[in-house]
């Protein structure tokens, strides 16, 4: 099994990476491969609402790394989304990536295992965590939990290692994610997936 993780921080080895790596270490222990992709240092623009991806085999017309990252998401068994918090929400580069990726691939991520982690100095962690979870819920993914909200605290690089509760949260999340991935894998040929319904769109302004 394989998990692909996306680090939304511009700092490659900062506290967001530390949170992801702490989760990943528990997955490694269970024989699950993890690839961490650094998103936050790239120039990723947001969705331009052109709709071309729906007519272009699910590919975005913007020529950057996103199409390749989406392919990795589709081919993975699980996905981790990680973001720092600047103004009480996920950072801009990560949101630009996620808006495009989940619009392009949302239906193809159904029943994969998805988890979110957030690194924050002080406040805004839960609101950013909820933002990330919106993408996972939209795609009908399976979401493992931990023993608290998946937020770790630290400002300077490395400070997150001093947050004992945050470290435990990430370890427990990793263990629970590995467990859910194994349940999913072992249940594939045992429990039939519900048939996917075509999406109904209701517009309130006509």
Model description:
There is one protein chain. This protein is α/β, with parallel strands linked by helices and 206 residues long. It has five helices and five strands, in the order E-H-E-H-E-H-E-H-E-H. The chain has helices at residues 15-29, 66-75, 92-105, 125-138, 164-187; strands spanning 2-7, 33-38, 78-84, 113-120, 151-153. A five-stranded parallel sheet has the order 2-1-3-4-5, sandwiched between helices. The protein is globular. The chain starts with a strand and ends in a 19-residue tail after the last helix.
Short summary:
The protein is an alpha/beta fold and 206 residues long. It is built from five helices and five strands; from the N terminus they run βαβαβαβαβα. It starts with a strand and ends in a 19-residue tail after the last helix.
* Assembly classification: single chain
Structural class: alpha/beta
- Spatial order of the strands in the main sheet? 2-1-3-4-5
As a percent range, the share of helical residues equals 25-40%
Can you count the helices? 5
- SSE sequence, one letter per element: EHEHEHEHEH
- Mean residue pLDDT: 96
**Unreliable residue stretches:** none
Report the sheet-strand fraction: 5-15%
Q: Main beta sheet: strand number and arrangement?
A: 5 strands, parallel
